[in-house]
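Much of the work behind modern protein science is quiet bookkeeping, done one molecule at a time. The fold becomes a row of whole numbers, each drawn from a learned catalogue of backbone shapes. The protein below has been through that process, and both of its lines are reproduced in full.
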Amino acid sequence: MTAVAAEFFDGQRPLAEPVSITVTGDQLVVTGETVAQHVPTSAVLVSPRIAQAKRFVQLPRGGRLLCDDGAWLDVLPSEVRAEGLVAWLEQRWGFALASVWLIGLSLVLGYFYGLPAAALAIAERIPSSTEQALGQRLLAALDAQHVMRPSTVDRFVAQEVRDEFAKLIPNDPRGRCVQLEMRASFIGANALTLPGGIVVVTDDLVRLVTPEELSAVLAHELGHVEGRHSMRALIQSSGVGLIVAVITGDASSATAALGTVTAVLNASYSRDMETQADAFAFKLLDEHGISPNAFATAMERLSQQAGARPGSNSFFDSHPATEERIRRAREAATKKKP
């Protein structure tokens, strides 16, 4: 072959020496001012081809050659066995565009299907003690950041709410703890469930709805407790940091990974979770002699208030298809056992 210009690096000095390369039979000959090497072609390794970039030839004694790409390099051993196929694919835009499309599709499918499935599997394996500790830390963080403040509801009314809530709590053979927390808050008439079975109800909600309607909303939140929906939603919205923290049982790190207030208030339930919580609530209300109509009227009150206060947080900020859920509650009421 015709001599090819290259740069020789001996591995000792940072400077390159100009050399020429020829391949004669099974020998690669390197010639320069201070270099004269005859190396078996079977003892060298050529770096993978990347577009039109220069390529390295690794010599057996530690030296390296840097030269322009050329067909003659294809006869030498390559560092990557599939280098030819990779280079062939890199030169075809159709495959590149298809790869980008497949990556995008994988990310979408992973977000809508893979992540929820992973969240469910992880939530089911989190010890109750870890989940309860996380819930307590989140509630403390909401209080510390003044999202929540001590309740100002009359203590007799508050006791009635607690008594009615206690009646709703279903028997749980797993022995999970469920607790009710009442708070004043700028988020308005609302109720939310934190990990570990902590149900938070705001003063505005207590004052807005009737006792039966409040029981209906609390029954819905108990549905989220039963399905561990808050833990699953937080895992989905908070990503890998929370996943690692809850698996290791470090509730403090998990709280930090959540971004606390933002994650708690923005962690939304899926339509399936809402449907499950609604169905649980309708059954629980029926068992306690309360018509699911109470849930429908509570949602109507909340919806009207949300419409009257544009820009405010509401019970519906993370709850989809309000009209559909009201319709299901009305249907459940007509099917109520005599």
